[in-house]
Design goal:
Blueprint: H1 2-13, E1 27-31, E2 34-37, H2 38-51, H3 59-79, H4 86-104, H5 107-114, H6 118-143, H7 150-159, E3 167-168, E4 171-179, H8 185-203, H9 209-216, H10 220-223, E5 232-233, H11 239-245, E6 258-260, E7 263-273, E8 276-284, H12 290-308, H13 314-321, H14 356-362, E9 374-377, E10 383-394, E11 397-398, H15 401-431, E12 434-436
Antiparallel strand pairs: 1-2, 1-12, 3-11, 4-10, 5-8, 6-7, 7-8, 9-10
Helix pairs in contact: 1-3, 1-6, 2-3, 3-6, 4-6, 7-15
């Protein structure tokens, strides 16, 4: 499974490096209708070297095989019409951009490092992330739901020797309270006025919707396509957005202004097909000034001081004062939503699985400690003020059934999932045209049926 996911990582990072000038390009693999170039493989190899990654065996064998596997998944996704929400793609790219900025230091330094404008970096990253998420969605569809009984988990555990028991890394449980800065009415009114002006300009024929989207929309993924989102079902869109978009009757009418967690939109219908629609939108986001952030920090300082004086509990503050709708009904307790994690669906997080700002704060905390207010960016790309409480910390240890049943269950599920996906890959090998150039065949492939005698 890790190898398959590494292939996704490789594909998503290949744009970071250019092939060396002295590499003569050639087609080294053909998988169905898709070609893998020597320069593609070289890009991946150079990226891994620069990232300090270690590969098992010959990279000129391992890398093209992983790329071929990804092409099998993407081809099946086209056949099955597997898609991912554009908002999910943008969210992942924005999180990645924020992480890179945090590591390198500033937007300007990021642009200097990649020798590209930040907008260009985002645009290029979006397509790579979209493919990565489609592959992951295709894998989920192929595997379906894996159901295990407790006896199967116990059987797996009992078969392991003491030396073979998996190491469970340190995990923490964290409660959080957030406050969003107040957006001045003048700011939201100005955004709505701009969107109303856009609507008038489109209706009068002065500008095309797609032109204004390319020029002004703050959704980088769709802006480059004139605001077009592609065909999506209602469940793939934000509820407020979907309710308005699906009620549009024809492309001559521009929607009313729609507010979502991402900002304010206007929408134009392109086409309806059954329970799916294709539409354009223009997104404008309110800007939060330093003044509003300072005021939000002051409000959080007041909450923090009251907590320190035991005027109310953290549970009560999270329930009644927090802006975080995902946690406030759970007394602020964060839940791990990373499906790839052995802690998925539980309140346990490894430090690197937490939002970066939270992980940094929690690192030195003791159980029961409450942090001072700090700034963080949410998964909706909103800057908020937060405080956290460390509810529990479990030190690294050898797995045992009483404490780590969920982690062991996930390990067994992943083994079954990997077996099912491997069987699917072997089946696809038999029905997919594959040609490997001379000099690229003499490999100890993980799936040897690539080479057909």
């Amino acid at each position: 499974m890790k190898r398959i996911l590494l292939a996704c990582l490789l594909m998503s990072c290949s744009w970071l490096l250019k092939a060396q000038d002295n590499v003569i390009d050639e087609i080294v693999w053909v998988v169905g209708d898709d070609a893998i170039l020597r320069s593609d493989v070289e890009d991946q190899r150079l990226y891994l070297l620069n990232a300090g990654e270690r590969l098992e065996g010959d990279p000129y064998c391992f890398i093209p095989e992983q790329m071929a596997i990804q092409k099998l998944y993407l081809n099946q996704a086209k056949i099955d019409s597997v898609e991912v929400p554009e908002s999910q793609v943008i969210q992942s790219v924005d999180q990645w951009i924020n992480s890179v900025i945090g590591q390198i230091g500033s937007k300007e330094k990021v642009e200097e490092y990649f020798n590209k404008k930040l907008s260009q970096i985002k645009d290029e990253k979006i397509e790579m992330v979209r493919e990565q998420q489609i592959v992951e969605e295709m894998q989920r569809k192929l595997v379906g739901e894996i159901k295990l009984t407790p006896s199967e988990v116990r059987k797996y555990y009992n078969q392991l020797s003491q030396d073979s028991l998996p190491n469970i890394p340190m995990t923490v449980e964290v409660q959080i309270i957030t406050i969003e800065p107040k957006i001045p009415f003048e700011e939201t009114d100005a955004i709505k006025a701009r969107l109303r002006q856009f609507t008038e300009d489109i209706n009068s024929g002065k500008y095309e919707f797609s032109t204004l989207a390319r020029l002004y929309s703050e959704d980088p993924g769709s802006a480059m396509r004139g605001g077009e989102l592609g065909f999506m079902s209602k469940s793939m869109l934000e509820p407020a957005f979907a309710n308005v978009a699906f009620n549009l009757k024809d492309s001559k009418h521009i929607s009313q202004i729609v507010e979502t967690e991402y900002g304010f939109h206007i929408i134009q219908l392109i086409e309806k097909r059954g329970d799916r629609i294709n539409c354009r939108h223009i997104l404008l986001k309110p800007e939060v000034s330093e003044k509003e952030l300072t005021e939000a920090t002051a409000r959080m300082d007041s909450i923090y001081n009251n907590l320190m004086e035991n005027k109310f509990t953290f549970d009560e503050a999270a329930t009644f004062l927090s802006y975080d709708k995902d946690t406030r009904n759970n007394k602020g307790l964060m839940v791990n939503s990373n499906y790839q994690s052995s802690n998925s669906g539980t309140p346990r997080f490894e430090l690197h699985e937490l939002p970066q700002e939270v992980g940094k704060v929690v690192y030195d905390m003791k159980i029961g400690d409450i942090s001072k207010p700090f700034r963080m960016t949410t998964d909706k790309q909103k800057e908020v003020i937060a405080i956290v409480k460390l509810r529990a910390r479990t030190e690294a240890h050898k797995a045992n059934l009483s404490d780590d049943y969920q982690a062991l269950k996930t390990i067994v599920e992943n083994k079954k999932r990997e077996e099912l996906l491997n069987d699917w890959i072997r089946k696809q090998q038999k029905s997919t045209y594959v040609r490997i150039s001379e000099g690229w065949r003499n490999c100890d492939f993980r799936f040897p049926d690539w080479v057909k005698e």
